[in-house]
Structure formats: structure tokens, C-alpha cells
């Protein structure tokens, strides 16, 4: 239902252009689609590809002030050459060689690291050295100074997640350099934040003010693993504990509120029993998974992707997806769900099982 | 601090590209600037330019199903040909000819209208006919059906504000067609929402559940004007009432919470006494003003723009700005501040007056 | 199921007494009844009785520093000689003669006044003179200085509501004398709080911090009356607006939150169409009504009480009650519901209509 | 400033009495004191007195349906023969003989148990068997069914804390009998609630809805002890971790909100280094301590009370108090602070150290 192409209309449209105006009626479907039509596409990055490239970077690219981090961003093929895994999220593999230090800085962007393998690096967050080990989730919330150092003779790689694209798109980013070296080279087993906060259901009286981001710097694998194990055991005992049959899951939370660890990023860990297929679902917002253990597949937008340990995949907004566990299947997950929920844009649709 | 350009490095970078990867170290400054560096630029659209183009559109472009609205979007010159007034916000002039109807639809995007001149149109929101008159703010929150009809023999123009760019960028949009005609052609002076909710400090017992968006469909000019008048009178009486000397302002709020009218858009009205200059300030997030009455200027990023009634201007994130009132100066304002605040990205900086 | 009365048992019980101990097993039913068994009883105080006694007090009892107020408390017959209308609430008739002043003081207890007839008194709350007229609700939240003065040659009476019994029982009360005279004898039509806050849906930018109690000092009858009138008109038009058929009601709220006007006291106004009977209901907590206009009855605990203008009645916790409107029937109501809700003790039971 | 005692005044006062009215001016100071003047008094109950009486009760008093619990309430000497430790709180020693069962019931009142010595009893809360061991805090929030059984050949005693006086005074109590025997005689080391919820910073996806009371049924001593130990170690390392020098403390919280475990009762555990004296303070509301370990004293209202393990003491509202640690000194604490805070009555005053 567009107007006839007349000289008058052309003159009108030229007037629009001269005045920095654009009509709605010529572009309504693009601007306001019937449902989300993301430019981002589903994609899988294989750990077997990522790790060698990171290792080669370790050989060729120094880490230090200026470049700041030896991090390699996953660039969604649909997002036109930006290092964005989705419109809101950044995901990267970061690599630190033996005895290397990545200097301290801070930024408004929220960040976390998740360790799929290896150990030996400490991240120093606002002066608190935090050990990084397999299965751990480490937080560096917005405007916290942080740097990393490798205390060993072996390199280490992990993934970083941030809200860089969201911050970039919405012009909210601030950045500041800190110390060229990390401010504390101690290598304690537990960070001060953990020692103060990681006691279930107990809150220090010195920490009664709620915080925007979680005061826990490290969520340890041993706790995550035990929580998931208990859920599956409880399910076997006939107790309500899992999200759905064969599907255990935890959300990492801020103990001062019970809510998400950071304002823009949700972090979760999912465990499927061998043989479990999750029902197909769609959600508003984008999500990224990394396989932590086991073998299985993800069906995303109707396409089945076989998955191995370390593989990372992204599901853009409103694309249907499900998981299939060949063995017990462990996956770390992060998403922009806090943005969607806080702004009341969240919608989800879960398909009923055929019976 | 970039690595040397060697064949090995080139091979590495080619490997990145093949695998849909991009290094952080080559683009850090762009991805994580020291402070927000918006692509959007400050810009003023003159009402004297906008209105004639809207009138010509009224002659040449039909309004109806498909195009949906005779709305002309303000395209920020820095945003590369998108009809976005800022990365988050849409602003448009909409025009409805005598006896015309814009059909009903609904969308996840939040919308409002503000009327700088004219009358005679009713917007029908979820079946409730809402009169649109000079100085009124009218809400159509996300997923509310709405259409408009002009009950008179004169055309009418107004501005629309929405979160279309934010919804587009983050893939949260849903859209549904409704009735081709509005569902109620009645032209009551007050909408049902106003009759139920517009009694100061009184909440209907039938409406005890808090709502995501304000249940008030129309914020009338007479209330806004009176509130601002009282603030300036109280200031004259030596009472605390204004934001700063000579500067009265109200925020339109959701009476069920006292918070913003919608999840993503803040609406305010500001009145300056003649001769008042506001102190320069910067804020994270983008904001749009429309001059409602009086004469004055805006100093944005160091450039002074003279302003007349109806003129619309945008201030991108972290650009310094101030207002200067030649006469009593009335301005409607909307912004994405609820997004920034809910996600904890808000920062503001107000310059101290020189003494 | 009590133990046998043996010498050993008596010795045990004497041991308890000596050590300030008491067994649970001898008193369980009293301490933990099957449902609330209030000592307070339903009771009606007739305005025709109250007003003459208040007037005689005006003749015999001075008002001034020390006694502070010429207020006569309604003493629930079940509460053993305390001036408590219920275990949580205080209700009194207060009387101020021509040109009299009740001196300023402040206390932790929350207070309001409601005016069933008369005019001419201003209450000065934290220095802000607030006119008191028929149908108005006036707030003096905890720790606000307040005094009253009668600007006319006629006496005036009204009711006070406070949380004195709750404060007394739980040892939370503080009290401080202020000025012996009120600090401002001006008699403006509208208080400063109203001028700043009583614009529907509009919040002053100078008042963005939420307050524990409402910043509105006076809820005017004209607004209350209009809100109730509109609800009944909307009901006639077939629109959802009333609580139930023929029953309009508003809650007075804090505009900064949409919640109750004060932390411990809920205030509402109810209007029944002539002929309306409300369904019997029970609620945890106690509530007090004053008839403002019209004729009707209250059925409380199975007993029907005929009611005239000004009559005050109390309904203790979990006692069934309903209202019957002979004419259009207007009632002001206050209760301790915020206490019950904030502490998660609230329960309600509404009987279904017989069909 | 009372009126002259005249025949007219006597007639007026007789009129008041006949009409169930009482003047404010004769009782203002009692009703509205300058600061809280609690009837409750500070008092210490010695464990050496309590335990033998409980043991004798075990010999003489059966436990079963009707009496429900072999619990002996601490009756504040100032509260006139009520088994109330304060106007809001109930504290009791409960005793269960070998192989005994206390039958299941539920009530609106919130309850917890704290174990100062012994083991062998399981409390079954909504069907979930919860082990009770030394140093553990066990919750039975309002309207949860619960019963206890002793699985051993030794008796066990512990303390109960409830909000019985508050519920009684405000008429909010409901009570319902459940199973005469507990519904599950299993004796697992960890309850299902713990297995699901006691993983620091991890929330089960099956438990995303916030709960009024904590879903954790048992807060184990090993966690409490470790948290306090870490606080003191961090303090030694020069890190902020304790409330004040030498004073470590945790609050037991609801992991779904980070707030108090139940709506009316706050539970905390405090540990003082040997030699630590806390600064004198006053708080609105009443609090109860039980010495868990070590030796020390409490100075309450100017009187010093020497304390041994198991001793229980109460501090009424606004009475000054401080603690003195002779050895490392461990104390469990509960209070009505959530009531005071939720209703905005909380005030505290801490005396500055003399220098």
C-alpha cells in the first residue's frame, strides 16, 4: 500500500532526505517485524578450532598495555564484521602464556570468565586475587579494576563474556587504565570475596548493603557440580528439584538479592542426563552456551549441531532450540536475559511434547 | 602496541577470519572507548520544516493498513541512513487528515504521542478513546492495541516517540494487526483510564495490582501547566520546589509505582523562567526535547542552537548540554533513562557554576 | 492431655515460677488458637453521643502544653480499660474551640485526621499549614512536627487515627515537644505539599527520592468524591471500575510508591449504591469505619447495627462483617492492613453469594 | 496541666466511661512516652537452671497431641505472668526424651530452633526430615507443618524462638493439627531443602520464585563457624570483614532475597575475640541472645551479667547494652528487627568510644 510514484512524491522524498527525515510507511516491516528477525545467526565455534588459533596468538602477539588482552572475539556471521557474538553479547577465547601478566584496567562493561580447562591464572579484581580453575565462573562486574597473571609455566585459555555490543550500541561505555602489573601477585586458594560471602545462607553483617553486582568473585566448580548432582539425585528420589525430567540447572546469583550476578548478563549451568532431549523453545534475547563436559547436540532453528567439549554456540532471539544429551551433558550458559526482563521485553514459548 | 606484520601473523588473522573470529587487540579503542563516543550527533529539526513536509505527505500519501501510519521519522545524521533519532529512540511527526483513520495494531515497542499544537484526533488504546489536545502526553505502552481517528474537518499533526531502534537492535519486537477501523469512534472528553486513575493520591481498589506501564492514557496539559506554575510560585515564596533556581520540572509517572510511565522511555516537562541558564551537564543515554512554548536556545556540544516552538533536538550520550531561556521557556522531554538506570549504566556530570 | 497432679509436678511448676518460666502445654490453646480470637469486640460509637461529650470537654478542659490535645479516645470494651479501639489502632474525637491552638509536637506514632463535618482549623505539619475541611483526610506521619489552630469563631471536631496501641505494645514510641504555638498561622487554601504533589501522574523532579510516608498532607474531598462518582458511572457504562457490583472504593496512597500512605495504617473510602449489600468477609487485622454520609447498617459478627452520619465502628480480626446501604452510603475506613501485609500475616475470606 | 476537679468534670468523665471513651490528656505520658519505656525488663536465664527443669519435665510430663510440645517458655518478669520473653518474642527450652515424637501441627506463627548442645532429633518440616545438631539453626516458618522425633536413646534439649506474643497481641494466629506421628522417620544427614539450596551463590532453576521465608531448613554450624573464622582471619590480614574490631557476625538469610529468614524474626550469630568489648548501643525492638561458647558478660541497662554456655538473656527496646568477651565468645541472637524495619520504626544509637 505505497503511494504512486509521482514527481510530487519524489520531491517530497527528496525533501525528507534534505531534512534528515525518513517515512515510516516505506519501511514498516523492517522496523517493526511480526516477531524478532535477528540479523545474528545461529553458529557453532569448535573448541578444536579456537584453541590452536589462541595458541598461535600466544606465540605471535604480545600481551600488555594498549592491546590489554590476548582475546579473540567470536564474530557472529550475520553481524557484518563486528566481533559480536550477538547484538548484546561478546564472547571470546582469551589466552595467557606462562608467567605473563595482562595489565589492570576497568570499564563500565560487565565481564565474566569461565574456565573449560586448565588452571594457574589468577585474576585480580579490585585488588582481590581470584584463582581460575576448571569449571569456575569468575566475575569482573562493571567498573571493577582487573588484571590477570599466569603463575605457572604452562599457558592457559578460557572464555570471556561481556556486554560490549550492548554498551557500544547504546553509548554507555567508560574505560580507564589501571596498574601495568597486577596489584597483588599472591596466589591464594580462595579470594577474599569468597571467604566473606561463600557460606550458604549466611550474610556478613559488614555487608548488609545490597550491591548491583554479586560480591562473589568466584563460583567454584565443586559447588556447581554438587548442586547439579543433588538435583538429579532428588529427582531420582521422586522429589521436585529439576527444571524438567532429566534436566538439572542452576543460576549463578548475587547473594545480596537472589538475582542475577550482573545487571546485563545471566549465567547458568545446565546438566542433562544421558538420553535427555529438552523440548524446543524460543526466548526473546540471545544466549550462548559452552559445552563443559559430555557429548550431545543442539538443534537450533531446525539444524542439528553435534557438540564436543569446549564448543561454543549462540542462539539469537526467538530462534527455536533444544538440546540432546548423548552422554551426561554439562553446559555453561550465559545470556542477556536480565536486560529483557528488566525492560519487560521477555517472552518465552516452550513447545508441548507430542503424545 | 600491535604485533609485527609478519607472514605468520597474516596467516593467523586469515585463520581468524575463516573461523568467524576477530582479535580484541586491534580494535580495543573502538569497542571500549574511554567515554561514550556516540555515532549519533546533536541535531535540531525545525518545526517550520517538519510541518510543511507532513502536510504535503497528507496530500500525497494515503494512510491505512500496511503503511499503518503517516509518520515521518527523524533520522539522526550520524546514524547512517536509519530513521533513528538516537541509538535507542525513534521520534516522528505524524499527520492525520480530516476524518481519516489510522488502523489499529499493537507492537512490543512502547510508544507515546505529544501534541504541540492542534486537536480533534482521538487515539483508541485497548478500546478506550483518548482525546489528543495541545500539551497532552498520550501513552500507548507495549502490546496495547491502538489506532487513531480525526473527528474534525481539519488535519492534525503531533510527535510520536518510541523505542523502535532499541527494539530493532536487540531483537525484541513483535507486531500484530488489529481492526482496520478503530474499535470505538466515541469522542469523550476524558478517557476511561483518566476517569479511573487521575485523582491525585487516590488508587481505585479495583486496580491494586501494579502495572508495567502507566494505566493513565492521557496526561493533560492543564495538570502539567498547573504543576509547573505552582513550583515557580513556591520558589518565589522561598520554598524548595524547583530542580534548580528558575527551573521547574515534572516527570510523568506510573501511579501504581511512582516510577517511569514505561519500561524504556522517560517523559518529562521542563519550564524555565525567562533569563534562566541551566548549568552544563552530561548524562549517559540519549534524550530528545521539543519546544512547547517560548523562545530560547540549547547549547549542545558547545554549539548554540536558537529554538522556536515545535523545534525538536536530540542530545546523544555524554554530550554536554544546557538550556537558555529568552522568554519563559517550556519544553517537553523524553529519553532512554529508564534503560540506563535499570541496567545500572547511568552516570551524570553537572558542571559547577563559575564563581 | 495434662500430666497428673502429683507432688513432683507441683514442685516442678513451683520451680518454673521461681525461675520465670511457664510451660507451653498448660496454655497452648490460649497462646496459639485455631484462628484469631480477639479480646477486642465489635462496637459502635454513635456520633450523637460523641459530639456532645466533646463539646462539654471544650467547656471544661483547656488545651495546651502537657495535655497537648483535647482528644477523647474510643476504648474498645474488650480491651480492659485501655483507650485502644483495637490492639493496634487508636481512634479519637478531637475538639478545638474558637481561636484555640493545640501546640506543636512530634512522635514516632503515625497519625491522620478525618473530617466528618465542619471547617476552620489548620493543622501545621513540619511548618506547612494544611486546611481541614469536610471530607478531607489529613496526614501527620511519624516524627513530623504538628500543631493545630482554629482560625474561626466556631468550634470544630474531627477524628484522629493513630497506631498508638501498636507502638505502645511494641515499645517503639518516641515523643518530642515543639513550639507552644503553631509555627505558621497562615490559612492558605492549599498546603505546599498539595501544590507540589497533587497533580495526577506528575512527580516533581525535586522529589525523586521515595518517602516512607506520603508527601501529600491533605487528600481533599472533591477528589475523593469525583473518583467514586466516576467509578459508579463507569460501572453503569459496563466498564470494570468498582470492587464489586454497586461498591466503589479508593485507597489513599503515597504517590512516590503507589503504596499505603503510612507504614502502619491503611486509609480508604468506600461508597455503596443504595440497596447494595456487600458479601460477608473476614480479614486478619482490625479495621475502623466512620460513616460519612447516607444511611445503612453494618452486620458484624452476626449482629446488625444501624448507622447514621458520624458513627464509628470497629471490626476486630477475623470477625465476619458486611455492609448494607439503605441510601447511597459513604464510609471512611482505616485499618492496620499494612502491618499484616508487610509481615505476611494477611488472610482474607469472602463468602460466596448464595445462589 | 489537668483541668480542675469539679462536679461537671466528674460528670464528663463518667459520661466518657459510660460511652467507652477515655481522654488523652490524662494519660498522654503513658501512651506516648519520650522514648520507649518497656514493661519488659532485662533478664538472664541460666542454662544450669533451665536444663534440670527441662529434664524433670521429661520425667513428669508426656509429650503428645494436645500439649503438643514439652516446651517451657521464658517469662519476662516485667510482663505480668505471660510466657513472653519480650512483647514480640517467645523463647523456650524444649526437651524430647529418647525415642519420643512430638506430633505434627502448623501455625501462622514463625518458629525456629537453635541447638546449643546435643543431637539425635530430626524435625520434619513439610515432610522434609531435618537433622538437629549442635550449633545448627532450624527453621519452621509460618504455616509449615512440623513435628520432631528423637531417633536415639538419649534425650535432647534445644531452644525454640517464635513470634507468639506478637501474633497473640495482634490477633493473627491460626493453628492446625497434623499427623500424630511425624510423616517421615528417615534420618538423612542433610534435608532436601539443604541439598537443593545450600550451594553458595547458586539458585536452582526449579526455585526461581521468591519465597516469604527461607527455603533453607537448616543452617549448619560448620558453615557458621567457618564464616566467622574467615571474618576474623580477614581482619587480621587488614581487610574489612568484621562489624567492628574483634567482632565477627553473620545474619542468617533467605537466599531468594538476601533478606531475613522469616518476616518477623531476625537470626544472627556473633563471635567476639577474647578481650573485645562492644560499644554500648540501644535499638528499637527486643532481642534475645544465647551463649553458645566461651565466657563473657553482658552489660544491660548498666548492670553486668556474667555469662556461661547456654545462658539466655533478653534486652528490651531502647535499653543500652554491650558485650564483653573474656575468652573467644560465641553467641546466637534473634530479634524482632524485621518488624521494626518493615514498619519503619527502627532506630539505633551507638555510643562513641571515649578517647
TrEMBL record, chains A, B, C, D:
Keywords: Dioxygenase, Oxidoreductase. It comes from the Bacteria. CDD domains: cupin_GDO-like_C, cupin_GDO-like_N. Residues 94-160 form the Cupin type-2 domain. The keyword Oxidoreductase applies. The keyword Oxidoreductase applies. Gene3D superfamilies: Jelly Rolls. This is Cupin domain-containing protein. The lineage of its organism: Bacteria, Pseudomonadati, Pseudomonadota, Alphaproteobacteria, Hyphomicrobiales.
Amino acid at each position: 500500500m505505497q503511494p504512486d510514484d509521482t514527481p510530487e512524491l519524489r520531491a517530497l522524498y527528496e525533501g525528507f532526505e534534505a531534512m534528515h527525515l525518513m517515512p515510516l510507511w516505506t519501511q514498516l516491516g523492517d522496523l517493526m517485524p511480526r516477531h524478532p528477525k535477528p540479523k545474528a545467526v545461529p553458529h557453532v565455534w569448535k573448541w578444536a578450532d579456537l584453541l590452536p588459533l589462541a595458541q598461535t596468538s600466544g606465540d605471535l602477539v604480545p600481551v600488555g598495555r594498549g592491546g590489554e588482552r590476548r582475546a579473540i572475539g567470536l564474530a557472529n556471521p550475520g553481524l557484518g564484521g563486528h566481533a559480536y557474538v550477538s547484538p548484546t553479547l561478546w564472547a571470546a577465547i582469551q589466552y595467557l602464556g606462562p608467567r605473563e601478566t595482562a595489565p589492570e584496567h576497568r570499564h563500565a562493561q560487565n565481564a565474566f570468565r569461565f574456565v573449560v580447562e586448565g588452571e594457574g591464572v589468577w585474576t585480580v579484581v579490585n585488588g582481590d586475587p581470584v584463582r581460575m580453575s576448571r569449571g569456575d565462573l569468575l566475575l569482573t562486574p562493571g567498573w571493577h579494576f582487573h588484571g590477570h597473571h599466569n603463575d605457572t609455566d604452562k599457558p592457559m585459555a578460557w572464555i570471556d563474556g561481556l556486554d560490549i555490543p550492548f554498551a557500544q550500541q547504546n553509548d554507555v561505555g567508560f574505560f580507564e587504565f589501571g596498574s601495568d602489573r597486577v596489584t597483588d601477585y599472591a596466589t591464594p586458594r580462595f579470594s577474599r570475596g569468597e571467604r566473606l560471602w561463600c557460606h550458604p545462607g549466611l550474610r556478613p553483617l559488614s555487608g548488609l548493603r545490597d550491591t548491583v553486582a554479586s560480591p562473589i568473585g568466584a563460583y567454584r566448580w565443586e559447588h556447581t557440580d554438587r548442586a547439579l548432582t543433588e538435583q538429579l539425585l532428588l529427582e531420582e528420589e521422586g522429589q521436585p528439584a529439576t527444571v524438567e525430567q532429566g534436566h538439572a540447572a542452576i543460576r549463578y546469583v548475587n547473594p545480596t538479592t537472589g538475582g542475577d550476578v550482573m545487571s546485563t548478563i545471566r549465567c547458568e549451568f545446565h546438566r542433562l542426563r544421558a538420553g535427555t532431549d529438552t523440548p524446543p523453545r524460543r526466548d526473546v534475547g540471545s544466549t550462548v552456551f559452552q559445552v563443559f563436559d559430555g557429548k550431545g547436540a543442539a538443534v537450533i532453528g531446525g539444524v542439528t549441531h553435534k557438540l564436543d567439549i569446549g564448543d561454543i554456540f549462540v542462539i539469537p532471539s526467538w530462534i527455536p532450540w533444544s538440546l540432546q544429551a548423548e552422554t551426561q551433558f554439562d553446559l555453561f550458559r550465559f545470556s542477556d536475559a536480565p536486560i529483557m526482563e528488566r525492560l519487560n521485553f521477555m517472552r518465552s514459548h516452550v513447545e508441548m511434547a507430542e503424545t
